[in-house]
Design goal:
6 strands; 159 residues; 6-stranded parallel β-sheet; Rossmann fold; alpha/beta; 39% helix; globular
Length: 159
């Protein structure tokens, strides 16, 4: 089974959304055999990736960084989408962090990088804004020799 993990920004500017969507679809298409998608289901890139992977028939493995992870979803619609996607997962990995901290987020991203065959990064190429951000996980995955596919529209900056 091929395992594809995701790391990415929570906020994707409108002018990059179509490019990111098409890039994720392309990254998920054309795999022979079964596919496992690894995601923490954060708002933005993680949820988009999981939704598209499930539509492609992939099995979803959810990596939950902390015991209070759901409290970080400020918007009820985002939380509902998280719960819907989580309910469709075939596997759930819960890390031992009681609270959502930068360390918990880093550990979740590292777990995904450790267990995937390829990492998809919805990333603007800029350094992480806090420990465990997309840039940190890309750097970690590359240090493992893991193939990383970066998806972002050139010339678009995150807000």
């Amino acid at each position: 089974m091929k395992r594809i993990g995701v790391t990415g920004h929570r906020s994707i500017p409108p002018e990059a959304q179509e490019h990111v969507l098409e890039g994720l679809k392309a990254a998920l298409c054309g795999h022979e055999g079964s596919l496992e998608a690894l995601s923490s289901l954060a708002v933005g890139a993680d949820q988009l990736f999981a939704d598209l992977a499930l539509a492609q028939g992939a099995e979803l493995t959810v990596v939950i960084p902390s015991g209070d992870y759901e409290e970080g979803f400020a918007d009820e619609a985002d939380l509902a989408r998280y719960r819907t996607l989580k309910a469709r997962a075939v596997r759930e990995i819960r890390l031992d962090f009681p609270h959502s901290t930068d360390e918990a987020y880093y550990a979740a991203g590292a777990w995904i990088a450790d267990h995937c065959d390829r990492l998809i990064a919805v990333w603007d190429g800029m350094p992480a804004r806090g420990l465990g951000g997309t840039g940190d996980i890309v750097t970690y995955a590359r240090s493992l020799g893991r193939p990383v596919t970066v998806i972002w529209r050139d010339g678009v900056a995150r807000g």
